[in-house]
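Retry 2 of 3 after timeout on previous attempt. Resubmitting structure tokens to design endpoint.
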């Protein structure tokens, strides 16, 4: 479509200029019309971007001017029928397809009329004239129709491919979420199994040892050299039992057994406020979601640790505890107006433990604190939900 006019127009001009029996004026007029045709094609088609070639009105105006130039040039010399063939190619630029077929018809009428002349008033002459134009228009116009249909199907395929790619990306995200949930469920099941094992074996065994040692103490006569060792063994067994029970509790907070996270945090806030002179305000924003148990545990432990730090270090008058459900993210904020801390004092074991907990469920923990300006702890985790039970 771009190259054909620049091949056919120069050939037509050269043949026309070499023809005998012309005056210099005839040649000048033909060259002038050829120059106008070259400029029209250059600025109306060759230099036009693909985006502008899709504009119907602009294309119709261009093609109408091109037909006029075909007529003018063929009126000067029939050899310009070579250049007129350009119309069959540029008709493909006319959208929708009825405009393209009309362009082919106009080109065919121009070419055949100026080549053969108008038909005589006889059935044979009219039939030949109409037949040539009809066959030419049908053959080339069919290419335009099928070409546009093919382009439409191509665009539909591209749209379908884009939708499939979007669906694949969404499926990849869902797959990653399912893997996360499966991993977290596996971790939680393992923790619960360990808790049961510790409770049913180690804790029960230590309880039996303590019972036997206490019975031995009651039945012991005198204060022989072995009695202090029995007393020491009893003390160690009690300490070990207490540690085992703390381990069981650490694997799953009792406050979350049978309770949702907002309720568990509310109970935690009430107990903490009851044992402290600090004013505590607890708030829940957004619509609560049934989160993955691992996320519930992580957020609860962060709130627990943060409030413990306030009690130990902050000397605060007010504390705010906020749980926010923000669609695909859940935020937990603990803010106090205490003495604050510098950067060197915000890397203790408790804070590092909070960071590790939040990081283990795919979240982030931010700590802002400065001397005299209080402390703000903000945990952000993905809102990975589970089906409510």
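Retry 2 succeeded. Sequence:
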């Amino acid at each position: 479509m771009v190259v054909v006019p620049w091949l056919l127009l120069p050939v037509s001009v050269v043949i026309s200029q070499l023809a005998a029996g012309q005056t210099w004026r005839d040649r000048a007029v033909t060259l002038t019309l050829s120059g106008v045709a070259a400029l029209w094609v250059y600025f109306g088609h060759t230099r036009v971007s693909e985006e502008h070639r899709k504009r119907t009105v602009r294309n119709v105006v261009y093609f109408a001017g091109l037909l006029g130039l075909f007529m003018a040039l063929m009126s000067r010399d029939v050899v310009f029928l070579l250049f007129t063939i350009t119309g069959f190619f540029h008709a493909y630029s006319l959208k929708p397809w009825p405009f393209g077929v009309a362009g082919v018809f106009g080109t065919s009428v121009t070419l055949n009329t100026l080549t053969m002349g108008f038909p005589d008033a006889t059935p044979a002459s009219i039939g030949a004239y109409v037949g040539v134009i009809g066959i030419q228009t049908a053959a080339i116009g069919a290419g335009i129709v099928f070409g546009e249909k093919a382009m439409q199907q191509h665009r539909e395929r591209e749209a379908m491919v884009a939708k499939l790619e979007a669906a694949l990306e969404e499926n990849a995200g869902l797959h990653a979420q399912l893997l996360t949930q499966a991993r977290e469920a596996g971790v939680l099941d393992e923790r619960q199994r360990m808790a049961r094992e510790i409770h049913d074996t180690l804790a029960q065994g230590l309880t039996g040892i303590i019972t036997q040692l206490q019975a031995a103490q009651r039945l012991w006569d005198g204060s022989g050299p072995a009695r202090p060792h029995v007393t020491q063994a009893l003390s160690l067994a009690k300490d070990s039992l207490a540690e085992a029970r703390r381990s069981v509790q650490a694997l799953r907070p009792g406050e979350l057994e049978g309770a949702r996270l907002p309720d568990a945090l509310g109970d935690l806030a009430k107990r903490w406020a009851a044992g402290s002179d600090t004013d505590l305000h607890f708030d829940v924003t957004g619509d609560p979601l049934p989160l993955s148990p691992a996320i519930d545990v992580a957020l609860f432990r962060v709130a627990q640790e943060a409030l413990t730090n306030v009690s130990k270090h902050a000397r605060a008058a007010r504390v705010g505890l906020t749980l926010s459900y923000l669609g695909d993210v859940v935020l937990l904020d603990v803010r106090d107006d205490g003495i604050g801390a510098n950067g060197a004092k915000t890397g203790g074991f408790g804070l590092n433990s909070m960071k590790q907990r939040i990081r283990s469920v795919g979240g982030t923990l931010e700590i802002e604190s400065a001397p005299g300006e209080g402390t703000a702890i903000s945990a952000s985790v993905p809102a990975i939900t589970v089906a409510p039970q």
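Attempt log closed. Residues 123-219 form the longest helix (97 residues).
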